[in-house]
Design a protein that fits this description.
The complex is a heterodimer of chains A (200) and B (464). Chain A is α/β, with parallel strands linked by helices and 200 residues long. In chain A, 32% of the residues lie in helices and 15% in strands. Chain A has one domain: Aconitase, domain 4 (Alpha-Beta Barrel). In chain A, the strands form two sheets. In chain A, strands 1-6-7-8 form a four-stranded antiparallel β-sheet, with helices on one face. In chain A, α3 crosses α4. The mean pLDDT of chain A is 96. The radius of gyration of chain B is 21 Å and the shape is globular. In chain B, α6 packs parallel to α8 and α13 crosses α15. The longest helix of chain B is centred in the first third of the chain and has 17 residues. Chain B is of the alpha/beta class and 464 residues long. In chain B, the strands form five sheets. A five-stranded parallel β-sheet of chain B has the order 5-4-3-6-7, sandwiched between helices. A five-stranded parallel β-sheet of chain B has the order 17-16-15-18-19, with helices on one face. In chain B, strands 11-10-9-12 form a four-stranded parallel β-sheet. Chain B is built from 17 helices and 19 strands. Chain B has three domains: 158 residues, Aconitase, domain 3 (2-Layer Sandwich); 107 residues, Aconitase, Domain 2, CATH 3.40.1060.10; 174 residues, Aconitase, domain 3 (2-Layer Sandwich). The chains are: A alpha/beta (200), B alpha/beta (464).
């Protein structure tokens, strides 16, 4: 709950091309059988990373030049489907701190923000150029400037969009809202009395 | 200037605007299940925080529970499933939360249990750690799918931090042709508006087709709002809604007062919407998906369209179908009737009507999985179980079953399933190469008895 501000994310990037990458793809349902999130990092993208014998089939995040990357670049509607927080948890536990995509499914976006994973939106032309530049120079670090809504890579700057609410929360370090919600509990109890329904 | 139901419910539940600019929104009713709640309780324990309003949370177990009688005996054979089961038993007991468990015969898929217990009511806000929570919008509730951190927030404060939505009125005029069902309506809408068309929106479904739909049908429509990107979908409550709710265990005791409140929360005639789209009910035919997103759906008479984007190409590579193919005639290996989309009594009644006296085709495995104990008991009281069993279906115990394969019900290898569930994502039904074709329950029966995707209206002589 007491989390540090996130003004920028610095790290190597990995292109994970494709639109509509759903949360079943990010973390297949069978890995949801857990009561803690600890093991999820190794199961990220499992069914598109490994064959039936568990051997790598060359998913971008397993390519030697991208191992250790901390920023994912992907397509439209990233994180669609199930509300499972296991998806952003897997992303975070696999070492990723930011995603740059064309758009996000809402539940996924909210889950990421709460966990401090920055979800930036970039136009297709920008993503295509970034993907190419990263492929050509995978060892170079990318800087995602949260406050300035831009990406710096290889001496060039690219505009990205970060939702104002999320940006404010990252910069202030207030992206996990529980502490603030708890502060409002007296008002919550007042509002409850005005509701026209109850279950007792 | 009038307000929509969404705005009225939002206003009535707004505690305050948070410093981060979002709304602290009160959640009138919270549903939990075993998959997305244990971590939330663990977080609370770590922070030494108590559940603020335990009487406003209700629990069940659905995703991991086996649907074969003997396999449900405790401890469950899968130790991880057993641990999750025990976690929700312990967490509900320790926090004084009502648990609709198998012993009380009130267990079932969370989105089926809420409505049948009567805790899903008009004019309320509802949250559940499950994306299909929009189902409850069928009653004129504003219902949000949430992640586990938000489950924690709701347990700790009965509120969550959320930004308001735009509202799109989705009107379906006229009437449906015979043999066309709620499932076809929502697949049609998603095929037109896209899987991300609803991002940022709540969908208000309306029009004569919706007005004349049963509560079961309305739940099917709202259930899949999220598949169109809309986190919230809802329908204004009316006499159909009230008739369904009356007599349910948690229905309000002061009925007249409740109805007055519900009526007051309906969208005003002059409500302002951010967007309006209209479809004609007559244009909809039985639908079937051909790809890896619910948007990739066509009418049974249509052909798979030419590839116009990367996801379509990826889908065809995965499914092995080709642009120009009809789905009519495609062989299926498995048929699944059930899930929070189509696991209600009306779904089984309609399916049984056509399964009666027929046989599941050789080589096809067919499952009929009631969504809850209530559905199962009602179906058995009407003799529907016997119809399915005689036709060669497996008649199962309640749970999520093959919708997402977190339990023993799974596809194997490249199997193709005709499924009444909600997602045809890659690997969704438990095999990383398995293929899912989403259809209505009656289309599923047609697939079961012919062994192929086929127009149920022709097989069963509906409307002809």
């Amino acid at each position: 709950m007491s989390l540090g501000p996130i003004k920028q994310v610095i790290g190597r990037a990995v292109p994970v091309p494709g639109d509509d990458i759903d949360t079943d793809r990010i973390i297949p349902a069978r890995f949801l059988k857990c009561v803690v999130f600890d093991e999820l990092g190794g199961q990220l993208f499992y069914d598109v990373r490994f064959d039936s014998e568990g051997k790598s089939i060359g998913h971008p995040i397993d390519k030697p030049q991208f191992v250790g990357a901390s920023i994912i670049i992907s397509g439209d509607n990233f994180g669609c489907g199930s509300s499972r927080e296991h998806a952003p948890q897997a992303i975070k536990r696999a070492g990723f701190n930011a995603v740059i995509a064309g758009s996000y499914a809402e539940i996924f976006f909210g889950n990421c923000t709460t966990l401090g994973i920055v979800c930036a939106v970039a136009e297709k032309a920008v993503r295509d150029e970034l993907m190419k530049a990263v492929e050509a120079n995978p060892a170079a670090e990318m800087v995602l400037d949260v406050e300035g809504s831009k990406v710096k890579f290889n001496g060039k700057e690219y505009a990205v969009d970060i939702k104002p609410n999320a940006k404010k929360a990252f910069v202030e370090g207030s992206y996990d809202s529980l502490a603030e919600l708890l502060n409002g509990l007296p008002q919550v109890r007042e509002l409850e009395k005005t509701l026209k329904y109850s279950f007792v | 200037m009038g307000k929509s139901l969404f705005q009225k419910v939002w206003d009535a539940h707004t505690v305050r605007v948070l410093p981060n600019g979002q709304t602290q929104l009160f959640i009138g009713m919270h549903l939990i299940h075993e998959v997305t709640s244990p971590q939330a309780f663990a977080m609370l324990r770590e922070l030494n925080i108590k559940v603020a309003f335990p009487e406003r949370t209700f629990a069940t177990v659905d995703h991991i529970i086996p649907t074969e009688g003997d396999a449900r005996k405790r401890p469950l054979a899968d130790p991880m499933a057993e641990e999750m089961f025990q976690a929700i038993e312990r967490n509900t007991k320790e926090n004084g939360i009502t648990f609709f468990n198998p012993e009380t015969e009130r267990q079932g898929v969370v989105h089926i249990v809420g409505p049948e217990q009567g805790v899903t009511q008009p004019g309320t806000t509802i949250a559940c750690g499950d994306s299909h929570t929009a189902t409850h919008g069928a009653f004129g509730a504003i219902a949000f799918g949430i992640g586990t951190s938000q489950v924690r927030d709701v347990l700790a404060t009965q509120t969550m931090s959320i930004a308001p939505f735009k509202v799109r009125k989705v009107e379906i005029t006229g009437k449906l042709n015979e043999g066309v069902y709620a499932k076809d309506v929502i697949l049609y809408i998603i095929s037109k508006l896209g899987v991300n068309g609803g991002i940022g929106y709540a969908y208000e479904f309306c029009g004569d087709v919706i007005k004349n739909m049963s509560m079961e049908g309305r739940m099917t429509v709202c259930n899949m709002a999220i598949e169109g990107g809309a986190r919230v979908g809802y329908i204004n409550p009316d006499e159909t809604t009230y008739a369904y709710l009356k007599g349910k265990p948690y229905a309000p005791k002061d009925w007249d007062k409740a109805v007055a409140y519900w009526n007051s929360m309906k969208s005003d005639a002059d409500a302002v919407y951010d967007d309006v789209v209209t479809f004609k009910g007559e244009d909809i035919e039985p639908m079937v998906t051909w790809g890896i997103t619910p948007e990739q759906a066509i009418g049974i008479s249509q052909s798979i369209p030419a590839v116009s984007n990367e996801v379509m190409a990826e889908a065809l590579e995965y499914t092995g179908f080709a642009a120009g193919d009809k789905m009519d005639g495609k062989k299926v290996d498995v048929v699944f009737i059930g899930s929070c989309t189509n696991g209600r009594i009306e779904d089984f009644r309609e399916a049984a009507k056509y399964a009666k006296g027929r046989k599941v085709a050789a080589g096809v495995r067919a499952l009929a999985v009631p969504g809850s104990y209530n559905v199962k008991k009602q179906a058995e009281a009407e003799g529907l179980d016997k119809i399915f069993i005689e036709a060669g279906f497996e008649w199962r115990e309640p749970g999520c079953s093959m919708c997402l394969a977190m339990n023993p019900d799974k596809l194997v290898g490249r199997q193709i399933s005709a499924s009444t569930s909600n997602r045809n994502f890659k690997g969704r039904q438990g095999s990383s190469t398995g293929r899912t074709l989403l259809v209505s329950p009656v289309m599923a029966v047609a697939a079961a008895v012919t062994g192929t995707i086929t127009d149920a209206r022709k097989v069963f002589g509906i409307g002809g």
